[in-house]
Amino acid sequence: MGLTHRLGGPTLRRRTILSAGLAATVLALPRFAGRPAAAADGPALRLHAKPGQAGLLPSADGGPTRIWGYDGLVPGPIVRARKGDIVDVELENGLDQPTTIHWHGVRIDNAMDGVPHLTQAPVAPGERFRYRFAVPDAGTFWYHPHHASWEQVARGLYGLLIVDEDEAPDVDREILFVADDWRLDADGRIDEGSFGEMHDWAHAGRLGNVLTINGQPPQQLSVRPNERLRLRMANTANARVFSFTLDGLAAWTVAVDGQPVPPAPTGRVVLAPGQRVDLVVDAPPAVGEAAIAEATGTLFTALGFRVEGEPIRPDPRSAPQALAANPLPAALDLADALQVDVIIEGGAMGMGPMRGSMGMRPHGPLPPVPDWGALAPRGLVWAVNGVAGHPDAPLLTAMRGRTVVLHYINATRWPHAMHLHGHHARVVARDGQEVTPEPWRDTHLVDPMQVASAAFVADNPGDWMLHCHMLEHQAGGMETWFRVTG
Ligand code: C2O
Ligand code: CU
Predict the structure, then answer these.
(1) Arithmetic mean of pLDDT, 164-173
(2) CA of 105 to the centre of ligand 1 (A)
C-alpha cells in the first residue's frame, strides 16, 4: 500500500471506491434532541466526548484508528430537531482535557454558544454541561468543541445538527455527506507527532492524507434511475478547502450554511472548513454509474453512485422548489451601517507589510503592524487588526438591530474561512465594488489579497467570536470577538 504523505501539501491519498456490492451506510440513525419548549426534567440527549475507534481506512489497509468522538463515534450522533424546537443536550467530558460544544451556524442564545472563557467555563474532564437552546432556522448545521479545536476536531469530535423544515422537501431520500481529511501514519494511526507543528500553523493548516465521508472510506451508493436525493454536505476538516465535482448527476444548490437559496443548477461544490451545502441531486434516467469526486488533489471518487433497478419514476423531474425561508432579520440598513475593517495579516510569505499592496481604503485608523519577531516564538503567526490572539477589547460594539459591514481584508498569501458566531452575513461588496448580495453564510471563504465585505444585522445580544475556521490559523492568532448590546 503506497502512502503519499505530503505534509502541508494538497494531495490526498488516493482511494478507489470499493467495487464489491457494499451497501453504503451513508444514512446513520438520527437521534432526536428537540422537544417542545415546555418540557422539563433531564436532557433529551447525552453526548459523551470520549476515545473510540473508527474504520477510517478500508480494513485491508489497516486500522481501526483510535479517535476521539461523541459517544466514541465519528461523526458523532446526529442531533436532529424541528425548526423552533428547544434542543436539549448534556455534554459529558470523558477526555483528559477540557472541552465544550459549539453549535456551528445556529443563531443561538449567547450563553449556549460553547466558547470557553467568552460564553462559558471550559468543561473539565469528568464534568458535564447542559446545552438548552432554540433553533430558529431549519437547515444543516454541525457541532464541535471550541477548546483546542485544532486537536479535538482533528481527532474526530464533530457531528451534524440537522433542523428539519416544517414541511419536508419532496425528495426520495436524504443522504449525509460529511467530508473530513485525516493525517494518518503508515499504520493507520492519527499522526500525533505533528499536532502543533508550526509549519502547518503558518501555512495552510493541518492538511490530511486520507479522505473520509461520514467517517468511512469512500463508498458506493445504490440508487434507482431518476431517484431524487437531498444531499447534506459539510466540511469538518481542520483546514482543507474541498472541491467536489458532480459527474453524471443533475444537481441544484438549495441551501448554503443552512440558509435556503433559490435552487441553482451546479456541477461543482467548493466547501471551506465549517461550511455546508444542501443539494438536491437527481440520479440519471438510465442504469449506469455516477460519482462525486474530490478535486483538490488527485481526482478520485468521494461517493460513487451505482444507478440500478427500475426507474423510480418514468421521467426526470424538473427543478426543485425552493426551501421555505428562515426567519432572518428583515433588511440590511447599509446606508447607516457600522463599517469595520478586519485586517488579516501574517502567515508564511506574508509577514512583511503586505497591506501596502492591497489598495485598501480603510474605514478607521490603521492598526500598528504586528511585531512578528516577538509573537512568532510564542506560536502567534496570524493577526487581526494588528492583534494576534484573543484581544481584550472587542472588534466592535453594536447596538442590537444595527447593520454591520465587516470588511475582510486578507493581506496574506493564504485563503481564510472567516466564521461569524451567532449571526449570518452576506457579501455585499468585493474589492470595494458593490456586488449583488450573495447568499447568507456563517463562514466566508476569502481568497488571498482580496477584500470581501460581509453585512449582517447585529440582532443577537452577547459576546461573539469571529475567527478563521482553518483551526491552526485560529490557534495561531486569527481570532477576535464582538459585542452586541441591548
Ligand atoms: Cu465552527 Cu468558532 O467555530
Ligand atoms: Cu485562515
Answers:
(1) 95
(2) 8
What pLDDT shows up at residue 299? 67
Best CA proximity match to 447, nearest among 474, 405, 413, 407: 413
pLDDT tens, 374-393?
A: 999 999 999 999 999 999 99
Q: How far apart are CA 357 and CA 354, in angstroms?
A: 6
Q: Which ligand is nearest to the CA of 235?
A: 1
Neighbours of 394 (CB within 10 A): 15
pLDDT on residue 15: 41
Q: Cα of 345 to ligand 2 centre, how many Å?
A: 10
Return the pLDDT at 63: 85
**Ligand 1 center from residue 104 Cα (angstroms):** 6
Residue 1 has pLDDT above 50, yes or no: no
Question: What is the side-by-side strand order in the sheet with 228-235?
Answer: 210-213, 173-182, 228-235, 276-282, 250-256, 259-265
CA nearest ligand 1 atom 3, residue = 104
- Contact between 223 and 306 under an 8 Å Cβ cutoff? The reply is yes
- 147 in ligand 1 pocket by Cβ < 6 Å? no
Quote the pLDDT of residue 330: 80
CA of 3 relative to ligand 1 center, distance in Å = 31
Q: Which residue has the cell 503506497?
A: 2
Is any atom of ligand 1 closer than 6 Å to the C-beta of 161?
Answer: no
Kindly provide the residue ranges of all beta strands, DSSP E only, lying in 327-425, ordered along the sequence.
Answer: 338-346, 382-384, 397-399, 402-411, 416-420
Which set of grid coordinates corresponds to residue 359? 489598495
Calpha distance 175→153 (Å, rounded): 22
Whether the CB-CB separation of 289 and 248 falls below 8 Å is answered with yes
Three-class DSSP category at 154 = coil
The answer to whether the CB of 276 is under 6 A from ligand 1 is: no
pTM over 0.85: yes
Task: Say which ligand is closest to the CA of 240.
Answer: 2
Whether 405 is in the pocket of ligand 1, judged by its Cβ within 6 Å, is no
- At 435-454, the pLDDT tens digits run 999 999 999 999 999 999 99
